[in-house]
UniProtKB/TrEMBL annotation:
It holds the Pfam family DUF423. Keywords: Membrane, Transmembrane, Transmembrane helix. The chain crosses the membrane at residues 36-59, 71-90, 96-120. It is found in: Membrane. Belongs to the UPF0382 family. GO terms for cellular component: plasma membrane. This is Uncharacterized membrane protein YgdD, TMEM256/DUF423 family. Its main location: membrane. It comes from the Bacteria. It is a multi-pass membrane protein.
Length: 123
């Protein structure tokens, strides 16, 4: 789990910075202020959960277990679905894509719940 989640954290961190720069410099004049804010929300949540993946990777060496692994995979799914749907929505101007965004949010919540349960079991 350590290597996998470290690689994913690095990938999502790198692409989050790249997408943030792309939005700030390349999309600023192409998108409305509302769509730019939506894109930046995707970047924000991607970066937060890239850091969460880094924590999961490190925790996997100390705590391990299925809950830690589940948290990591839920964060990955959340980034792909939540942030990915926001990117697709803004770049395609297809508002119906926003309908799947909450599924990604539920994945994020599930990941945090798994981390909390793993912490609870440490006692």
């Amino acid at each position: 789990m350590l290597r996998t989640f470290l690689l994913l954290a690095a990938f999502f961190g790198f692409t989050g910075v790249a997408l943030g720069a792309f939005a700030a410099h390349g999309l600023k004049k192409q998108l409305s202020a509302d769509y730019l804010a939506i894109f930046q929300t995707g970047v924000h949540y991607q970066m937060l959960h890239a850091l969460a993946l880094l924590a999961v990777a490190l925790l996997s060496t100390q705590v391990g277990g299925r809950l830690i692994g589940a948290a990591g995979w839920l964060f990955v799914a959340g980034i792909l679905v939540f942030s990915g749907s926001l990117y697709a929505l803004t770049l395609s101007a297809t508002p119906v894509l926003g309908a799947i965004t909450p599924i990604g949010g539920l994945c994020f919540l599930g990941g945090w719940l798994c981390l909390g349960l793993a912490a609870w079991k440490l006692a």
